[in-house]
Amino acid sequence: MLQMINHVRIEDNVAYVKAHGYLKAEMVARMYTDEGCSIEEVMEHYQLTAAEVHACLTYYYDNQAVLDAEEASVRAEVEANAIKGSEHLEKLRARQKPD
Q1: How many domains does the chain have?
Q2: Which domain, by its residues, includes 91?
Q3: Same domain, 26 and 2
Q4: What pTM did the predictor assign?
Q5: DSSP string, 62-93
Q6: Which of 3, 15, 75, 85 is deepest in the core (most CB within 10 A)?
């Protein structure tokens, strides 16, 4: 008799690979979807089984619209803060210049 196994757990609205602590399912899936790595490369990188990688991909594709929107929001925030950081660095450098 075959048994269904769920390799992903949801905790506080975040999906993790069950057998790997706090490894996010989205990170695993994005290595394949965004970075173009093969299933085998993802398996090797994270020390996962093919079933675990496919479970992460299933989770990602089932929730792609929401996950992609959240990712875009985070990237926009990072970019905005990076600009502010560079401006801050310029101010620090200006203060260090001798009069």
Answers
A1: 2
A2: 64-99
A3: yes
A4: 0.77
A5: HTHHHHHHHHHHHHHHHHHHHHHHHHHHHHHH
A6: 15
